Amino acid sequence: MAAPDRDTAPEGTSVPPAPPAPPAQETTTVTHWHRRSGGAVLLDGFHALKHAVRFGADVEMAVTADRAAALALADELAPDVREALAVLLAEVPYEAYASLVPRPHPTAVAALAVRPFRAGNLERLAHTPRTAPVVVLDQPRNLGNAGAVIRLAAGFGATGVVTTGTLDPWHPTVVRGGAGLHFATAVERLAVGELPGGPVFALDPEGEDIRALELPDDALLAFGSERSGLSSELRARADHLVALPMRPQVSSYNLATSVAMTLYHWSATGGAPGGAPA
After folding, report:
1. CA–CA dist 72, 189 (Å, integer)
2. 63, 33 in Cβ contact below 8 A?
3. What angle, rounded to 10 degrees, do the helices at 143-156 and 255-268 form?
4. Dihedral-angle region of residue 242 (phi above 0 means left; psi in -120 to 50 means alpha; beta otherwise)
5. How far apart are CA 59 and CA 52, in angstroms?
6. Which of 140, 147, 241, 272 would disulfide-bridge 204, Cβ 3.0–4.6 Å?
7. Mind listing the pLDDT tens digit for each residue in 202-260?
8. Is the pTM of this model over 0.70?
9. Which residues are registered as beta bridge partners of 267?
10. Cα dihedral 81, 96, 60, 277 in deg (nearest 10)
C-alpha cells in the first residue's frame, strides 16, 4: 500500500488558505528599517520624533501604525513640524510596527535618526566662553534617570550632558526618557580626565549650601550616581562641593530632581532658558 501523499489533504477535508503575503510597501519599509537600525538612534514615540525634527536631526525613516492619528497629534501639538512629519511617516500594520521596537509606545510612532558626530559634540562642549553649564553625570546607573536629566538640560539650555562610566547616554531607553531632546544639546560619554575645562561644582551633602552661591555659566555641574554618590576621581577634580537644601532625616533626592534644582538655581541667579515650543 502506497504511503499517503503528505502534500495533499485526506478526502473529505479542506486545506486552510495560506495567510496573505504582506503588501510590498510594508515589506520594503520593514526591510529598510532593519538595514539601517544597526548604528542609528531609535526615536521611540511621537514626542521623540517631534523634538528630533525640531532640533535638526537627520531622520532617516519614520513609521507609525496610524498615520492619520500621528498627523492629527502634530496638528494639535507641533504644527511647526507637521509638514516634515507628513513627508517622513510611513504607515505599517501595528504588528509590523511593534516588531521594530523593544516596547510599543502609546503613540505607535518610531523613527531612526543619525547620531550626531562625536567630534562636533566635543567641540561644542569644549568651546569657550560658554553661556550655559555642562551637566556631568558621574557613573550613573539608571537609564530612565539619565534620559530625564538630558530632557531637563535641554529645557534649561545647558551646553550639554556628559556621562562617565559604563552607561551609554544614547541607549534607546535613555533617548526615550529624554523625549528625543538629545538633539537639542551635546550628549557624550567621557572619562573624568577628558571633561571639558571650567570650574567643577560637584553636588555633595557635605558641601556649601547652594543658596549662598552663584553658579557661573562656564561651570561643570557634577552629580554622583544614584547609589554611591561621587567617585573619588570626580571628587578630586572638583573645585567646589555644593549641597542642596534638605530637611534632616531625608537621605537624598532623585538624580533628575537634584539636576532640576541646580539648573533652576543657575537660571535664577544669572542664566535663563530661552523661550521655545514644548
Report:
1. 37
2. yes
3. 10
4. beta
5. 8
6. 241
7. 999 889 999 999 999 999 999 998 778 899 999 999 999 999 998 888 878 899 999 99
8. yes
9. none
10. 20
**Given the C-alpha cell 521611540, which residue does it identify?**
44
Note whether 108 and 62 are within 8 A (CB): no
Report whether pLDDT(269) > 90: no
Taking only the tens place, the pLDDT of each residue in 27-49 is: 788 889 988 888 899 999 999 99
Helices (H) and strands (E) in the chain, counts: 10, 10
DSSP 58-103: -EEEEEES-HHHHHHHHHHH-GGGHHHHHHHEEE--HHHHHHTSSS
Q: Which residues, other chains included, contact 128 with Cβ-Cβ below 8 Å and sequence gap of 6+?
A: 197, 198, 218
